[in-house]
Write a structure and sequence with these properties.
This protein is mainly α and 334 residues long. Helix content is 58%, strand content 6%.
Length: 334
């Protein structure tokens, strides 16, 4: 088997030195899956210059093995150092704060960067960026829905139950209330645009019912609940931004994408009504409607390409972590 299949930090270090002192230093960044490559490429490219460059890759060159555990194990097996790092989703590992081996390794290894929010999908659902996603998809800049208020109210509705979820996961007592159970409670039943906000009240009711059941199942946990709540505040979890810390795939598929789709459908109808009202004759109407239809984009694709999250304070923390790793690596090089 080729030597390049046995990549380690020492191997990359040696290869860098063979290129000479003036050559750009190669730093390998392991990621979880193909879907993560673009996100981390955009993060790391900010730090490329005439002295260093990054190569973002899956954990294994000679197999299709992937995932968070594989990325972290590859870093552990190959020896983290000044030429290697891992870039992973935070998941619950960030908030359970080292109470499992994986969480402890992710938070304790100086060459691991994580998203802080649950996953990359949560960034793609960043509330302040969703109006621009609608504009990209529909070419209509009319603001007809307040995404920020919607996701703030949704977050407030699910916040008390989310604290329960983290509290039980920290103690590994999640057999009766798993992440899947949590997702079922906080799923939104989508409806017409005027009824979108009222759907949150239904979620709030389901949350109250489930909390009552949990209090009966786990009595005497009020002090622990309040302590967990206070600790989560220090991690940046607030009632208004809880949506950033729930399972990203569920948030994307079952909350944000359907909401954006509903808004975009109305924006498209609005633009089509405008075209019909302004068309001078049938030929012009058909040409304009055809051109507008061709110019529209798929909602899911636009969300996946959304980069409006770069102003998020959690994204800024990622950049600081990468900068910290680079500074550490440069000191080790000296």
């Amino acid at each position: 088997m080729a030597l390049k299949n046995y990549i380690s930090s020492d191997y990359i270090n040696a290869a860098n030195k063979l290129k000479g002192k003036k050559a750009r230093r190669r730093i390998v960044a392991y990621v979880e899956s193909y879907d993560d490559v673009f996100f981390w490429r955009m993060v790391l490219s900010r730090f490329e210059d005439d002295t260093r460059y990054f190569e973002v890759m899956l954990p294994s060159r000679n197999s299709l093995n992937k995932g968070k555990k594989q990325a972290l194990m590859s870093l552990m097996k190959n020896g983290a150092g000044n030429s290697m790092m891992a870039c992973v989703d935070a998941d619950y590992d960030y908030l359970i704060n080292g109470r499992t081996f994986q969480s402890d390794f992710m938070l304790g290894n100086p060459y691991v960067v994580h998203t802080y929010v649950y996953a990359i999908e949560n960034y793609q659902c960043y509330a302040q960026s969703l109006h621009n996603v609608c504009v990209m998809a529909t070419l209509n800049d009319h603001s007809i829905f307040d995404f920020e208020t919607f996701l703030q109210e949704y977050s407030k509705a699910i916040y008390p139950l989310f604290i329960w979820s983290i509290m039980l996961y920290r103690k590994r007592e999640y057999t009766r209330f798993s992440i899947t159970d949590f997702n079922k409670v906080v799923t939104i039943r989508h409806s017409r645009l005027p009824d979108m906000m009222s759907s949150i009240e239904k979620v709030r009711h389901k949350v109250r019912v489930r909390i009552s059941e949990l209090i009966k199942a786990y009595p005497g946990r009020k002090a622990e609940y309040l302590k967990t709540k206070d600790e989560l505040v220090r991690f940046g979890v607030m009632p208004e931004n809880t949506y950033l810390f729930v399972q990203g795939h569920h948030l994307f598929e079952n909350v944000v994408a359907p909401t954006v789709q509903t808004v975009c459908d109305e924006l498209r109808r609005e633009r089509e009504r405008e075209i019909r009202g302004k068309a001078m004759h049938v030929m012009q109407l058909q040409n304009e409607l055809s051109a507008y239809t061709k110019s529209q984009s798929d909602i899911t694709a636009m969300l996946k390409k959304n980069m409006g999250y770069t102003s998020s304070p959690f994204y800024q923390r990622i950049l600081k972590d990468v900068e910290r790793i680079i500074n550490r690596q440069e000191k080790e090089q000296q």
